[in-house]
Amino acid sequence: MKSVEGKVRKATGIYGLIDDGDRIAIGVSGGKDSVALLNILSSLSRYSEKTFSLTALIIDPLFGGKETDYASILCLCEELSVPATIKRSNLFEVVFDIRNEKNPCSLCARIRRGALHDMALAEGCNKIALGHHMNDAVETLFLNLFHQGRLESFRPKTYLSRKDITMIRPLVLCSEEELQSYVFRLGLPVIKSSCPKEGNSERDVVKRFIREQEHDYPGFLQRTFRAMQNGDISGFGVADSS
Question: Are 41 and 81 in contact (CB under 8 A)?
Answer without folding.
Answer: no
